[in-house]
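Sanity check

After download, print the first record. It should look like this:
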Amino acid sequence: MAPTNIGYSLREAISHFARNLTTSIGAVITIFLSLFIIGLFIVGSSMVNAVIGGVENQVTIRAYIDDSASDEDVAAFMTKLQSWPNVKSVEFKSKDDALAEYRATALSKADATLSALDGENPLPRSYQIDMEEPSQVESTAQRIKDDADFQKIVDGGNVDESVSYGREEVSRLFQVTNYIRIAAVVLVGLLTFVAFIFMNNTIRLSITARRREIAIMRLVGASNGFIRGPFITEGVIQAILGSAFAIGALELMRNLLLPKIQASMPFFEMEVPVLIYLATYGALVLLGVLIGLFGSAIAMRRYLKV
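Expected structure tokens:
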């Protein structure tokens, strides 16, 4: 579309939009619903990732230490652990700390169990290890087991039983989270394709209604670019309006609905950064404009063939 044709295309697009208001509103609603669903899935995927990230961050390794191990060996191995690349932090748990945790988690059963022990504390000391990359928990746990310094201080001399991280539960967790992330990407891609089909068909109907006008313009010698300009401009206008409505709906959801969902489920971290929303809104506008451009161009091909 030549620069001199822009003004004409814009005027014609607005004029046709007004003359065929019902069809134009239908196209805008179609674009709005398609982009809103895509945006909903993008934001939903970000929320799921936030929840998954919160659960993954709770994955820790607990390595138990024998009571006979010297404080020097315990401190030396803790320093060694802190230097490992995947280790985020290491917290030493004394026997008193372990007892306090047991009392806090076991509740009613704790008092009866402890009274039977005549005040003795059978719980071992331990390291609680948080990781930079929770998905690498298994390899980190195996490295602890294979370490000669840990084998000298391991509780009861049994390396396998003294390193705990819930192997089966963690394996299932990461398997499920990978499936969720893959499904989210596939769904967004599928919805984008469906949105393109719907928009293309809507634009095709609009162009079909004006096929006689297009034929007359061709007969008087109008170029393909001159004919195509108003339709492409109209498709872009519809896409911008549809994406604006989709962004408005997502903003209402973010400010009115999500705070209520978060308040009802405070144990899940569902906070989505503002930058994610801004990137999503920009992507929706860009996607709408691209689909409007290509949808109009593809829909007009049959009417511009020589």
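If your output differs, re-run the checksum step. Summary of this record's structure: The chain has two domains: 3-55+172-303, 60-164.
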